[in-house]
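Colleagues,

For the teaching module next term, I've prepared a clean inverse folding example: a structure given as C-alpha cells, and then the sequence designed for it. I'd like students to try predicting residues themselves before seeing the answer, so please don't circulate the second half yet.
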C-alpha cells in the first residue's frame, strides 16, 4: 500500500478516535496560490497533497458521522411506528370485540326482559309496571337476581345476561384504554419523526456547507497530481473504505470503532444453511431495480425507501418475511429464528446491520452482495446505491434470511 494511503488511514483513525475537526479547522484550507507554489517543488507538492487529503478525510468523516446520527433518529421513528401499528391493531380488534359483546349483552338482556314479562303474566305481584317498562338493564338484572321464583331455566338466562353484560363492560373499558394508548403512541411516533426530520435537515445543511470546500479541495488535489477530481474521489473512497471480503472474526471490542460489535445474546446456528439461490437473486434483483430512488424516513416503496423498507420489500418479492419495518425488528426477528451468521461467513444475499450501542438496537441494515459490496438506502440526500461494506459500527453478526 502506498505511503500516501497509510497516511490517509492514520488520519482517519485519528479523526474517529479523537473526534471530528471543529469548524475553525477550515481556516487552514489551502488557497490556489498555495497549490501553485507547491507545484514548483516535489517535496512541497507531496506535503500539500498529504495536507489536502487529511482535510478531505476529516470532511468525509464529518459527513458520515452526521449521517449515522440521522440514521439513528430514523430507526427510532421506525420503532415508534411499529409500536403504533401494533397498538392500532390491538385497539381495532378490541373495539370490534366490544361491539360484538355489547350486541350479545343486549340480546341476553332482552331475553331476561321476556322472562320478567312471563312472570308478570303468571301473577308475579312483586313486579311493577315500571319495572316492565324500564330499559335500564342494570335495574332489570338487579331485580331479577333477587327474585325468589326463578326456575333452573330462568336462573340460567339471568346468569347468561349478567355474564354478557360484564364481558361487554370489560371489553369496552379495555378498548378505551387501547385507544388511549394508541393516541399516546401516535404522539410518540410523530415526535420521533419530527426528531428524525430535524436531524436530517441539520445533516443536509452541514454537509451542504462543507461541500464547496470539499469540491475545491478535490480540484486542488487533482491539479497537484495531474488527475481529475472524480479520480481523486474514487481514490479516497477506496482507501478509507476498501471493498474487501470481511476479515475473520475477532473478539468484539466495543471501544474500537473499527471492530464489529456483538449483540448481547446471539442465538447463532453453528451450522447455518446455505442461502437459497433463487430467493437471494430475486431479492437482489428487486433491490437493484430501486437504484437511484430517493431516501425517505419510513419509506417502503414504490418510489422511495429507508434501509429496512428496502430490505423488507426485496425479500418480500422473493416470498420471504424478514421481520417488521425497522432494522432492529429485522435483526431480532431473524436472531430469534437462529439465522445469524458471523460477518466472516457472509454470503451473497445476507443482511448486515450497524449498531452504536453494543447490539441492543441497530440503526441501519443493508443487503450484502458479496465481494465486500452491499446495496443500501443509506440516509436522506443519498439515493439507493451500491456501496463498499463499511466496518464502522458493523454488527459482529449478519443474518441469512433464506436457506
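(Answer key — instructors only)
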Amino acid at each position: 500500500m502506498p505511503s500516501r494511503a497509510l497516511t490517509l488511514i492514520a488520519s482517519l483513525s485519528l479523526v474517529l478516535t479523537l473526534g471530528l475537526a471543529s469548524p475553525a479547522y477550515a481556516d487552514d484550507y489551502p488557497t490556489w496560490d498555495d497549490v501553485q507554489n507547491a507545484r514548483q517543488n516535489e517535496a512541497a507538492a507531496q506535503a500539500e497533497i498529504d495536507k489536502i487529503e487529511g482535510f478531505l478525510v476529516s470532511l468525509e468523516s464529518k459527513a458520515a458521522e452526521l449521517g449515522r446520527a440521522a440514521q439513528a433518529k430514523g430507526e427510532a421513528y421506525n420503532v415508534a411506528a411499529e409500536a403504533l401499528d401494533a397498538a392500532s391493531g390491538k385497539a381495532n380488534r378490541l373495539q370490534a370485540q366490544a361491539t360484538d359483546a355489547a350486541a350479545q349483552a343486549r340480546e341476553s338482556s332482552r331475553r331476561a326482559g321476556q322472562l320478567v314479562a312471563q312472570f308478570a303474566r303468571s301473577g308475579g305481584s312483586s313486579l311493577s309496571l315500571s319495572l316492565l317498562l324500564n330499559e335500564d338493564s342494570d335495574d332489570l338484572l338487579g331485580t331479577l337476581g333477587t327474585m325468589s321464583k326463578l326456575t333452573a331455566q330462568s336462573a340460567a338466562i339471568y346468569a347468561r345476561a349478567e355474564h354478557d353484560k360484564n364481558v361487554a363492560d370489560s371489553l369496552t373499558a379495555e378498548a378505551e384504554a387501547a385507544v388511549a394508548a394508541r393516541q399516546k403512541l401516535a404522539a410518540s411516533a410523530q415526535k420521533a419523526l419530527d426528531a428524525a426530520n430535524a436531524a436530517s435537515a441539520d445533516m443536509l445543511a452541514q454537509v451542504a456547507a462543507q461541500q464547496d470546500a470539499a469540491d475545491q479541495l478535490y480540484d486542488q488535489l487533482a491539479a497537484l497530481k495531474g488527475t481529475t477530481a472524480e479520480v481523486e474521489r474514487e481514490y479516497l473512497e477506496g482507501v478509507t473504505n476498501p471493498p474487501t471480503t470481511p476479515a475473520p472474526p475477532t473478539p468484539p471490542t466495543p471501544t474500537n470503532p473499527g471492530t464489529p460489535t456483538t449483540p448481547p445474546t446471539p442465538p447463532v446456528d453453528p451450522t447455518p444453511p446455505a442461502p437459497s439461490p433463487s430467493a437471494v437473486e430475486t431479492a437482489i434483483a428487486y433491490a437493484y431495480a430501486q437504484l437511484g430512488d430517493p431516501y425517505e424516513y419510513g419509506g417502503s416503496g414504490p418510489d422511495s425507501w429507508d434501509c429496512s423498507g428496502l430490505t423488507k420489500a426485496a425479500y418480500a418479492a422473493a416470498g420471504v418475511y424478514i421481520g417488521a419495518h425497522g432494522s432492529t425488528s429485522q435483526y431480532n426477528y431473524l436472531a430469534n429464528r437462529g439465522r445469524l451468521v458471523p460477518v466472516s461467513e457472509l454470503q451473497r444475499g445476507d443482511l448486515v446491520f450497524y449498531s452504536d450501542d453494543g447490539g441492543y438496537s441497530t440503526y441501519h441494515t443493508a443487503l450484502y452482495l458479496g465481494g465486500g459490496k452491499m446495496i443500501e438506502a443509506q440516509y436522506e440526500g443519498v439515493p439507493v446505491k451500491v456501496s463498499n461494506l463499511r466496518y464502522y459500527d458493523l454488527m459482529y453478526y449478519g443474518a441469512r434470511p433464506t436457506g
